């Protein structure tokens, strides 16, 4: 395991980057331990690191909680308790800050021994460890004072020492860009200015060298009232005296044309590691790497950073070519002319024909080890003639396209920055103190910029140039989607213009599809949805072309086997702008999509729940239709809904915003069985609220009533029984006013389920009996099956439950069968008919697994565990209920988990695992308390009394 402090805190497990501890105080504790690696860090020191001079009275016990959380992250054996404090069992070489110190010391020894080239390379490698400001996301004034300031000063000193060595080695051409960036970031650092003056002078740029000296002299006089110091004046005197390069320096320079590295470059450790790993050895075959991704993702910055880090490995030099001028690609012939001149081809000797230029370029690169950066490539044909042929050469190509057709190339898709990297980049541009002062606003800006480096740089630049703005102010301006692209512009940098370059280069049909996708707020789409907004035609090829431009990104195959295509949120906003300007409102596009969406979801719902949505009518099934085929269709339906879940949830809001009220409420209603089956309660709440609002505003009382009924289901499942009753009473009122007896009966049936949960069996029985009569009179087979099962459960009547099971079979509803089998299993278990109970529970479990219904599967497992306990096999019960518990936890079902924990506790008591029983009961009690489940709490209390009695017997 390795740790990074030279930038945002990072933890590496092999090549995998682990998520750093989230809470700021946890990061501060870990950073303090790492900075003292191999030594005991006292409690007093850690308290000062976390809370400064005013720690709370509970500081030490709270600190122990923080250390416990860190142990779960990095391993209990890694952080050890020691007398008076803690020790982290890592070597200094596992922490980049310590490694940096040691590498700088080693480089200085090499320098003092006269090994200048070796020292320069060692310093360059050491500086490559930095990913941003030291301890960038560690909020501790104590650590900043005692460590970060020292590390940053050492970084600057090491940079200047390495530049001195490069100047002595005659590498003045390659350090000019770096020195300009350095003096821009640290304008009062005289040593760096002196180095810049000398580097310009030795490169034959005497007037620029004198201009640089005048710039720094003016700055020092105006800012500090001081004249330049002796070192800077000496550099000026050498320029005036016309002194040439130092003895031993190279007189002929290899080209070093890559732009200067960005001082506030942030993150991208993974891609830089990939480039380094792919770099060819000297004498090896040339390597061509493609960095591709959406506009503004920082491809060029990564290529320049990589070229800077790797430059010393390429003695033949570094070439750079911009392959786009404005919104048009530059021809390969023109690029070759510039590259040949950079390689030393005399004026007038560049061949006229492109074939001759290619041959000469290949000849001139055949014996040199070069690094070539080809920036913003349009396609493969533009790149092929520009690839160097020399052994050990490396070509870095940036493009919005993956350039799949580029032979023998390897590609890396550059995505957006994660939240921590985004905030670090914002801090690097806007200033770390401002970001540290408003961390929540900084995170919000990062989220609104979608992690896009271009957008973050613009946002940071606007803040840097407006010291009176707070971050909260800018975040508020970015919140409004209608003007976000307006806000993300600074000088010649603008997200809109960057996206516009790509859009204008598209074919007409590609432009049309991209802008129509702007009507959708979903993070990604499948081809069927794209085809619907496009006009019903197949769009697979167009989607692939858009993915090739970087304006869409292929997200791979989803659970239903469909390829999904996503886009950056700022691309969506740009596409919506183009749609509004070129085609008008998005409502027309969404109206076409709504018809397709509703039909597909209605069919999927009909398979999940064998009745027409919103009615009591049963779907007819073919007489010879097999259970296996039916089960397959059910599973495929659930899989398709799972794959489309994010898209469909977003579509409800899209339809509502577009004024398509009926589409909004119907889609929200159609999705409820799936949300119930998979426990997607947040999505259920969100779509139900939007659907009810749409129905109410449009006067669709039937739709509002259906969604109120669904809301009652949700409240009942979550144990909010009073809320469930109120929602169902409101639905009943609507159905009575609409004289819709069938739906009134279905709402009353659900009210009966609430009465059961409220432990009001007599009222529940009356309500369910009324519903059963109403369903039978109306010929509603689905309602009849549900009522028979629930009434049989209340009355503990085996005949009613068996009749319900038969009714579900006639409907072709395996989910209903499984539910009825679970009720029968409970009845048999209560009556100690254990073989029958096990048979019913196992049949239910097999059905659940065929259907892929995980939560019902967990319920069946709990039943089987209870049966195993009754059979006197507690070990089997524990194994079975632990499997159920993992499913409940996976789906966030607290109620199911709490009841499963009680079964686990009972099994522990059966085998005298008293401590395990106490732990399970305590966890169950906590869950019931959160849910407000008094009955569950009472069961837990009774079991706790038994556990205490057992402990008393043992002690």
Automatic annotation (TrEMBL):
Domain OmpR/PhoB-type residues, every copy: 1-90
Keyword DNA-binding belongs to the record: yes
Species of provenance: Streptosporangium album
Segments of this protein annotated with the region Disordered: 241-260
Annotated protein name in UniProt: DNA-binding SARP family transcriptional activator/tetratricopeptide (TPR) repeat protein
Matches recorded under InterPro entries: AfsR-DnrI-RedD_regulator, Apaf_helical, BTAD, OmpR/PhoB-type_DNA-bd, P-loop_NTPase, Sig_transdc_resp-reg_C-effctor, TPR-like_helical_dom_sf, TPR_rpt
Start-end of DNA-binding region: 1-90
SUPFAM superfamilies: C-terminal effector domain of the bipartite response regulators, P-loop containing nucleoside triphosphate hydrolases, TPR-like
UniProt keyword terms in alphabetical order: DNA-binding, Transcription, Transcription regulation
Protein family: Belongs to the AfsR/DnrI/RedD regulatory family.
BP GO terms, sorted: phosphorelay signal transduction system; regulation of DNA-templated transcription
Basic and acidic residues: compositionally biased ranges: 249-259
GO MF terms held by the record: ADP binding; DNA binding
Keyword Acetylation applies: no
Lineage: superkingdom: Bacteria
Pfam families recorded: BTAD (PF03704), TPR_12 (PF13424), Trans_reg_C (PF00486)
């Amino acid at each position: 395991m390795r740790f990074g402090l030279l930038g945002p805190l990072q933890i590496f497990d092999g090549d995998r980057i682990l998520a750093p501890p989230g809470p700021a105080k946890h990061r501060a504790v870990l950073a303090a331990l790492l900075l003292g690696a191999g030594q005991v860090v006292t409690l007093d020191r850690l308290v000062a690191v976390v809370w400064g001079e005013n720690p709370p009275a509970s500081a030490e016990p709270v600190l122990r909680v923080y250390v416990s959380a860190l142990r779960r992250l990095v391993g209990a054996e890694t952080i050890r308790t020691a007398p008076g404090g803690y020790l982290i069992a890592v070597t200094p070489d596992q922490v980049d800050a310590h490694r940096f110190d040691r590498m700088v010391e080693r480089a200085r020894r090499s320098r003092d021994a006269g090994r200048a080239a070796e020292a320069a390379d060692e310093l360059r490698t050491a500086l490559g460890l930095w990913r941003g400001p030291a301890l960038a996301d560690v909020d501790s004034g104590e650590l900043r004072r005692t460590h970060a300031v020292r590390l940053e000063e050492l970084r600057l000193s090491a940079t200047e020492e390495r530049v001195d060595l490069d100047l002595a080695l005659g590498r003045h051409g390659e350090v000019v860009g770096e020195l300009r960036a350095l003096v821009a970031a640290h304008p009062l650092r005289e040593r760096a200015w002196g180095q810049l003056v000398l580097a310009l002078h030795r490169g034959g740029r005497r007037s620029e060298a004198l201009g640089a000296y005048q710039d720094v002299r003016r700055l020092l006089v105006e800012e500090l009232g001081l004249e330049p110091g002796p070192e800077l004046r000496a550099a000026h005197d050498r320029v005036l005296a016309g002194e040439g390069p130092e003895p031993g320096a190279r007189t002929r320079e290899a080209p070093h044309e890559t732009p200067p590295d960005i001082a506030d470059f942030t993150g991208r450790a993974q891609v830089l590691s990939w480039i380094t790993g792919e770099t060819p050895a000297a004498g090896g075959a040339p390597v061509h790497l493609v960095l591709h991704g959406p506009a503004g993702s920082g491809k060029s910055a990564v290529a320049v950073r990589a070229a800077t880090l790797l430059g010393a490995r390429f003695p033949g030099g570094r070439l750079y070519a911009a392959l786009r001028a404005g919104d048009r690609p530059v021809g390969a012939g023109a690029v070759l002319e510039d590259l040949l001149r950079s390689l030393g081809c005399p004026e007038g000797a560049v061949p006229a024909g492109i074939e001759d230029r290619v041959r000469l370029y290949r000849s001139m690169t055949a014996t040199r080890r070069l690094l070539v950066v080809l920036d913003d490539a349009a396609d493969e044909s533009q790149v092929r003639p520009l690839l160097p042929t020399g052994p050990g050469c490396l070509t870095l190509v940036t493009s919005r396209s993956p350039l799949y057709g580029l032979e023998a190339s390897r590609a890396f898709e550059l995505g957006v920055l994660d939240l921590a990297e985004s905030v670090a980049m914002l801090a690097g541009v806007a200033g770390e103190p401002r970001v540290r002062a408003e961390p929540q606003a900084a995170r919000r800006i990062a989220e609104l910029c979608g992690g896009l480096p271009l957008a973050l740089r613009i946002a940071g630049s606007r803040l840097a140039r407006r010291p009176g703005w707070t971050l909260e102010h800018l975040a508020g301006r970015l919140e409004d989607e209608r003007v976000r692209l307006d806000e993300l512009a600074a000088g010649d940098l603008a997200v809109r213009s960057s996206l516009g370059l790509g859009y204008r280069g598209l074919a007409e049909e590609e432009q049309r599809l991209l802008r129509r996708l702007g009507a959708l707020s979903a993070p990604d789409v499948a081809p069927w949805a794209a085809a619907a907004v496009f006009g019903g035609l197949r769009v697979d090829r167009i989607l692939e072309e858009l993915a090739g431009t970087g304006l869409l990104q292929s997200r791979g195959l989803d659970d239903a086997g469909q390829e999904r295509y996503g886009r950056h949120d700022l691309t969506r906003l740009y596409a919506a702008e183009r749609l509004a300007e070129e085609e008008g409102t998005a409502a027309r596009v969404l109206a076409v999509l709504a018809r397709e969406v509703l039909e597909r979801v209605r069919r999927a719902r009909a398979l999940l729940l064998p009745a027409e949505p919103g009615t009591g009518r049963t779907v007819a099934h073919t007489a010879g239709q097999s259970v296996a085929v039916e089960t397959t269709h059910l599973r495929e339906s659930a899989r398709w809904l799972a794959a489309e879940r994010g898209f469909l949830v977003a579509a409800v809001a899209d339809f509502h915003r577009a004024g398509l009220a009926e589409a909004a409420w119907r889609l929200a209603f159609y999705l409820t069985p799936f949300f119930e089956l998979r426990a997607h309660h947040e999505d259920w709440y969100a779509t139900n609220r939007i659907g009810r609002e749409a129905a109410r505003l449009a006067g669709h009382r039937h739709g509002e009533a259906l969604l109120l009924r669904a809301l009652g289901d949700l409240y009942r499942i979550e144990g909010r029984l009073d809320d469930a009753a109120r929602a169902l009473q409101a639905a009943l009122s609507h159905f009575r006013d609409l004289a819709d007896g069938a739906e009134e009966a279905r709402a009353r049936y659900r009210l009966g389920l609430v009465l059961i949960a409220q432990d009001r069996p007599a009222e529940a029985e009356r309500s369910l009996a009324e519903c059963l009569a109403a369903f039978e009179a109306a010929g509603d087979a689905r309602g009849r099956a549900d009522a028979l099962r629930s009434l049989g459960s209340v009355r503990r009547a085996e005949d009613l439950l068996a009749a319900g099971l038969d009714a579900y079979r006639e409907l072709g509803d395996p989910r209903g069968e499984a539910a009825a089998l679970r009720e029968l299993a409970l009845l048999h278990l209560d009556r100690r008919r254990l073989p029958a109970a096990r048979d019913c529970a196992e049949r239910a479990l097999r059905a659940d697994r065929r259907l892929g219904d995980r939560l019902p599967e967990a319920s069946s497992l709990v039943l089987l565990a209870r049966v195993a306990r009754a059979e006197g096999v507690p070990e089997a019960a524990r194994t079975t209920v632990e499997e159920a518990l993992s499913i409940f936890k996976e789906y966030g079902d607290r109620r199911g988990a709490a009841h499963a924990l009680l079964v686990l506790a009972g099994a522990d008591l059966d085998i005298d695992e008293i401590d395990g029983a106490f732990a399970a009961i305590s966890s169950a009690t906590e869950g019931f308390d959160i849910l407000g489940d008094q009955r569950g709490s009472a069961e837990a209390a009774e079991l706790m009394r038994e556990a205490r009695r057992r402990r008393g017997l043992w002690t």
